[in-house]
Amino acid sequence: MHMPRLEFPEVLVMEILSKLPVRSLTRFNCVCKYWCSSFQTPHFISKHHHYNLENNNLNLFLSRCDGNTFQTYFSQLSTEKDQNYVVKQNIHLPFFKDDDPSVYGACHGVLCLLDPSTDKAAIWNPSTREFKVLPPSSIQRPPYFSPFEETYLTLDYVSFNHAAFGFDSKTDDYKVIRFVNLTFVNTEEEHPHPHFMDQVELYSLRSNSWKEIPSPDYTPTFGTLGNNYVDGICYWKTETGEYLDFRGLILSFDMGNEKFSILPIPEFVGCFPEYYVHLLVFNGSLGAIVYPSERIDTSFDLWVTSEGVWTKQFNIKSISGVVHPLGFGKNGDLFLRDTNDEVLLFDASTQELKQLEINTYLDHFRFAISLHAYLESLVRINGIQEDEKYIIRQPTRDASNEYRI
């Protein structure tokens, strides 16, 4: 006797599937055409993303540099082993061969990678393994006329820094903004004095092109940890004033109206340059990690803003040997780098500092380590699958330097 076939309503089936990881959904694409097409609808993609957002299903990877090959690797972290962070696998992007790309994002689970010394840029969804190379900039670099030397100068060097990646909800478009620094010299002089000019470029995924936008009066400074995008707005730290009289400001850019604004950094920060200030995203809000610049035993304050009001989330008392914060993982755990260039974890629940068993054979240039957190996402970026051309996956090694998969 055959048991009656039990059928679930399609709405319930899609509700269940929206809670599964991307890897499972990718395998289920071959179950039937209806499932495959449903996974690509904006409704399902949004539902899947919001489930991961509500459950704080963060994924983490470290950007690291191999001291032998000078290539950048992305080491995906996992907590599957003994509930501690270990390197699950290393990913290398040959498109950035011999380059050192910086990572910006994540927005809806998608990251942006840019090399500051070249025009190379790409958008990457590490969950679907979709990878899109951005076109080179078509913006003109005008000649620079020096009134002091009364002649036009030659463009000598171009650098791309202080970028951000975000989403414009008004036009349903992903955008990349980057600051471009142009260096001009008088080639007729034996020891020419450089002259600098800034541009700002904005990329649209919808049009797949770059355009120049007006530059703000302030230039961002370094001091962003991983992600500087929150709800349609990108943020950078900037400064004004002279040495010992610096005044900290926050430069913001609205992806929707494509306008810059200036916000004050509250007085809790302390005086520059006695304190470091790093902007970052914490639990979906703009935050700032503040710590003294010249102490071996360092304490950290985390401040978070909501509707313009800054509130101290917590203070981590003096930690001996810690020199630099890397960013936050799940449940408010803070990743740190110590004086021995090892990666540590401050457990927010137990207030304990743990040394992680993370493979360090890549980290001959450990000062280049950065931490990036993202949510799994099905967002399509009109690229290609990374494993076809752009990704070489490397086996990790354990403490005995034996390779393992």
Question: What does this molecule look like?
Answer:
This protein is mainly beta and 405 residues long. It is 9% helix and 47% strand. The chain folds into two domains: 7-55, no CATH class; 56-404, 6 Propeller (Neuraminidase). The longest helix has 13 residues, at 42-54. It starts with 9 loop residues before the first helix and ends with a strand. Mean pLDDT is 80; it is low at 388-405.
CATH superfamily of the largest domain: Kelch-type beta propeller
Q: Report the portion of residues in β strands.
A: over 45%
CATH class of the largest domain: Mainly Beta
How much helix is in the residues? under 10%
How many domain regions?
Answer: 2
Q: Regions with pLDDT < 50 over 5+ consecutive residues?
A: 388-405
Secondary structure: number of strands: 29
CATH second-level architecture of the largest domain: 6 Propeller
Radius of gyration, CA atoms, in whole angstroms: 23 Å
Domain F-box associated beta-propeller type: 93-381
Protein name: F-box domain-containing protein
Domain F-box: 7-45
Organism: Gossypium stocksii
